[in-house]
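Hi R.,

As promised on Friday, here is the backbone we talked about, encoded as C-alpha cells. Could you run it through your design pipeline when you get a chance and send me back a sequence?
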C-alpha cells in the first residue's frame, strides 16, 4: 500500500513536471540560450518581456536575427523615453550590451556569408515557388517562427490554386537573398490558414539549402551540323560571315553560352574559334574558346567543350528560343524560377553576374528535389560517342591543326 502511494505521488510529480516543461519550454530554451551568450538572468528577463511586447513568435530569434534584435532595441528605447529612464546607467548599460551583441551577430553573418537555415530568412523576403504539376508561383514571407508563414502564392497577382489545394504538398522554393546569392530549398506545406488578416501557407523550415552565386545557362541536346573556323586575327570582326567552307563538325548540345562540339581529329584546348550554323532556319554566329578536349584515339575524334564569349543579342535569343522549346516542363519551371529571382535581385539593387558561369556552395544533405542537375542546368550531354564510352582525356597535342571531320 505504502509503495503504491509512493509510486502514485512520483507519477503525479512527473506529470506535473512534464506539463510545466511543456508550458514553459520556450522560456526555458530562451534562458538557457541567453545564458550561453553571457546575458544575466535580469537582462534575460527584460529581453523576454521585450520579445513578448514586440510579438516575436520565436523569442529565441533575438540571439541570431539582427532584425528581431533591432526591433526590440527600438522598443526598449521608446519605452525608456516614455517612462523617463533612458539616461539611467542601468538602461544605458543594457543598451550598450545589446548593441555590442547586435554587432557580433552582423559580423558573424558577414564572415559566414551564407544561409544555413531558413530560420535566418526575414519578413518580406520574396519567394518563387514551384508546385509540381501546377507551375511557378510568387509569394513572400510574412512571418518566420516555428514555421515559415508565407502569403498564399499567386501567378501575376492572381490566386490560381486555393489554400486547401496547397496543403500536404511538397514544394521547391527559390529566392534571392539581398547582398548574397540565389538559394533553393525543398519544403512541405503543413497547412493553409489566415495570418494577420492575410491568406497564408504554413510551410516547414529547412536546414538543407543550395546556394548558387550565378544562374547557369541551360543546355539542351541536339544534332546540328556546323562549320568551325580557327581565329588567328588579333582583332575579330564579329559581323563577318564566312563564305569558304570551314571544318565540318556536329553540335551535340547547345546553350547561349556554349556548346559541345564533335569533330574529327585531335582538338586543342585554349584555341579561339568561330562557329557558323543554322538553327531552325535562323543563321547563327558564335565566337569563343575551346576550354577542354576529350579525344578518342581509337576513332580519331574529339569532343570540344566550347565556351562562347560573343554572340549577337538577336542570335542569342534564337538559341534561347530553341533551347526553351525542347526543355522538359520541370526544367522550364526551374529556369523561370532562377530568372525571376535574378530579377528580384536587380530590384533590390544587387547585380548578379551574367556571364553564364556558376559557383556552388551546397550544404550537406541536399534534398532530392533540389539536386544541382535539376536546379541549375543539365551538365554536358553524356550521349554515346560512336558507341565508345571510354574517352581518352590524356594531355592534348600542342599542334593547332584540327582535321576536317570527313567521317562524320
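Update: got your reply. Pasting your designed sequence below so it's all in one thread:
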Amino acid at each position: 500500500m505504502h509503495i503504491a502511494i509512493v509510486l502514485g505521488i512520483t507519477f503525479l510529480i512527473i506529470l506535473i513536471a512534464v506539463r510545466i516543461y511543456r508550458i514553459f519550454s520556450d522560456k526555458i530554451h530562451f534562458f538557457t540560450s541567453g545564458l550561453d551568450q553571457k546575458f544575466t538572468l535580469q537582462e534575460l528577463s527584460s529581453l523576454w518581456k521585450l520579445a513578448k511586447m514586440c510579438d516575436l513568435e520565436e523569442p529565441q530569434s533575438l540571439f541570431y536575427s539582427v532584425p528581431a534584435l533591432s526591433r526590440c532595441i527600438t522598443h526598449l528605447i521608446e519605452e525608456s523615453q516614455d517612462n523617463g529612464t533612458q539616461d539611467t546607467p542601468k538602461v544605458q548599460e543594457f543598451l550598450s550590451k545589446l548593441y555590442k551583441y547586435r554587432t557580433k551577430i552582423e559580423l558573424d553573418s558577414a564572415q559566414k556569408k551564407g544561409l544555413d537555415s531558413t530560420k535566418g530568412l526575414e519578413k518580406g523576403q520574396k519567394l518563387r515557388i514551384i508546385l509540381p504539376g501546377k507551375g511557378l508561383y510568387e509569394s513572400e514571407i510574412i512571418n518566420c517562427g516555428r514555421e515559415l508563414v508565407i502569403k498564399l502564392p499567386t501567378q501575376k497577382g492572381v490566386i490560381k490554386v486555393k489554400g486547401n489545394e496547397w496543403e500536404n504538398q511538397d514544394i521547391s522554393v527559390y529566392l534571392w537573398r539581398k547582398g548574397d546569392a540565389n538559394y533553393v530549398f525543398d519544403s512541405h506545406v503543413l497547412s493553409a490558414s489566415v495570418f494577420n488578416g492575410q491568406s497564408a501557407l504554413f510551410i516547414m523550415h529547412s536546414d538543407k539549402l543550395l546556394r548558387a552565386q550565378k544562374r547557369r545557362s541551360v543546355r539542351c541536346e541536339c544534332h546540328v551540323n556546323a562549320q568551325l573556323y580557327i581565329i588567328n586575327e588579333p582583332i575579330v570582326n564579329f559581323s563577318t560571315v564566312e563564305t569558304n567552307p570551314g571544318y565540318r563538325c556536329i553540335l551535340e548540345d547547345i546553350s547561349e553560352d556554349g556548346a559541345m562540339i564533335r569533330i574529327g581529329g585531335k582538338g586543342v584546348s585554349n584555341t579561339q574559334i568561330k562557329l557558323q550554323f543554322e538553327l531552325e532556319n535562323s543563321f547563327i554566329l558564335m565566337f569563343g574558346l575551346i576550354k577542354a578536349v576529350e579525344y578518342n584515339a581509337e576513332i580519331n575524334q574529339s569532343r570540344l567543350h566550347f565556351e562562347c564569349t560573343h554572340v549577337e543579342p538577336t542570335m542569342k535569343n534564337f538559341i534561347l528560343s530553341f533551347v526553351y522549346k525542347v526543355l522538359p516542363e520541370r526544367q522550364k519551371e526551374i529556369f523561370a524560377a532562377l530568372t525571376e529571382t535574378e530579377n528580384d535581385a536587380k530590384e533590390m539593387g544587387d547585380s548578379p553576374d551574367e556571364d553564364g558561369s556558376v559557383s556552388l556552395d551546397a550544404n550537406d544533405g541536399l534534398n532530392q528535389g533540389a539536386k544541382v542537375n535539376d536546379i541549375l542546368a543539365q551538365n554536358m550531354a553524356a550521349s554515346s560517342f560512336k558507341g565508345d564510352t571510354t574517352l581518352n582525356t590524356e594531355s592534348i597535342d600542342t599542334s593547332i591543326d584540327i582535321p576536317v571531320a570527313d567521317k562524320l
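One thing I noticed while checking it: The first strand starts at residue 126 and ends at 131.

Thanks again,
M.
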